[in-house]
Design brief:
This protein is α+β, with helices and mostly antiparallel strands. It has 4 helices and 7 strands. The chain has one domain.
Length: 181
Amino acid sequence: MLYCFGFETVGVVVGDIYFQDPVPLPGQESAEHGVRLEVRRLERGELHGDIYSAQPIAIDTPIWRADLLESIDGRPGSFNRTHHHPNVDGWNLGGRAFDEELSTDPLPWVGRKLADLESLLAVAGITDADPTDADSLRQTVPEILDVTGRLLDRVRAGDLGRPPLAPVESAGTTLVRSGWL
């Protein structure tokens, strides 16, 4: 499942995810599932028809990511693999950053991060975002957190965040991953 909240040049995408890290950190060898939330660049493409044609939209490079994850063999609600990625370089997200407050009470923590889009953009070195995006995002934070919470509930119920039907091979590595993000 994928949700997208789009503003002028920035958007927030939220979706369920399941994956097995091919090179896990010690103690994190089991598969993970949960909800991934990313702040992304949005781009409008040129119309391919008349004024009434559908608008091409690209959900482009990440700016910041929060992974509200739990090990599949852990206690539901533990948020034992929850982390964020503050250092983004193009499509590469850098290492996991763990924060005790994020793992203890993730939705309010994520809400505070989203409410400060200016700081997320500054860390990512982005200077060309539409200046209205920060206020628009702040106004939408409650709706984004509501969707995120409902997705977490569905992952815990077993409706979402399930393993893929088949692993995917990429660059000689078997990837066990499902979800849009």
